[in-house]
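thought: fold this chain, then report.
action: predict
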Amino acid sequence: MGYKKIKEMLSPEELKSRIPMTDELFAIKSKRDEELKDVFTGKSDRFVVIIGPCSADNENAVMDYMHRLANVYDKVKDRLLIVPRIYTNKPRTTGEGYKGMFHQPDPEKEPDMLEGVMAIRHLHIRSIKETGFTAADEMLYPENWQYLDDLLSYVAIGARSVENQQHRLTVSGMDVPVGMKNPTGGDLTVMMNSVIAAHAKHTFLYGGWEVTTDGNPLAHTILRGAVDKHGQNISNYHYEDLMHVQQMYEHLELENPACIVDANHANSAKHWEQQPRIVKEVLHSRRFNPDLRSLVKGVMIESYIEDGNQPVGGGCYGKSITDPCLGWEKTEKLLYEIADLI
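observation:
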């Protein structure tokens, strides 16, 4: 029983001193942060596309994907604001097997979280340096934010974390847009309560300190579909669902009402090939109703180099080892279509 200590972790300050940001990279991030904030505050009408692998499982393949994405972005950045997914804390739903780069920088080797936290910081910095992209990551563990708070431009709180008080309070101290997903059971009130909590000021324990926060006015909702008591998927990206979220926001009068639609997960029933169709329906709803055009700021898409997924050690370069993803050929086509349809 109990916990066996393995090795002491680096503090966030020690990690940042070992793998530092430069002034040039800070300037890139500051510009990206402002561009993204302008979308969520309504100053910009660019459409946000948060896109990339389900899990950032291999540095070389992820960077190959980032360079491809950067080439497309050069052609659509007047209309789209692309935020790559570099998700480094991605576990299986059951918690078994591969748990993401933070745990296992090499998916085929034993967990090594000290090596993992260095690997994810190195990967995020490499992305900024080589492509100009600051990325999105999922905050599976609230304490991890301290290791990446100078790198990320967007954070997602997952469906299984959104009810957790420590996640909500931690978000209240962040200075970037944070998306709160609806829980797996689908109750949108839970999602909204998380947004309310994240907007508020709080005092709580964090990183060994009593801290206080000013609230995060950029916290917003993410619709990712749900699962009913029989295990059946329930989508929530349709026009009526978006209007319901719009009406919930009106009653709450929160600052910067915003919604992102996740085109995969329960919205697609993990049928990754359905993501382009779902995205196009969301874009149609925005065009039909000016209120939804203002509310729905973007979409989230799981995409990698190759279609589908494979087991750990499957050997196919650029193919997901977690949830199945849209391959690059289809991804590139979809990005140009989004730019034309918004």
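thought: worth noting. The CA atoms of residues 59 and 123 lie 7 Å apart.
final: tokens above.
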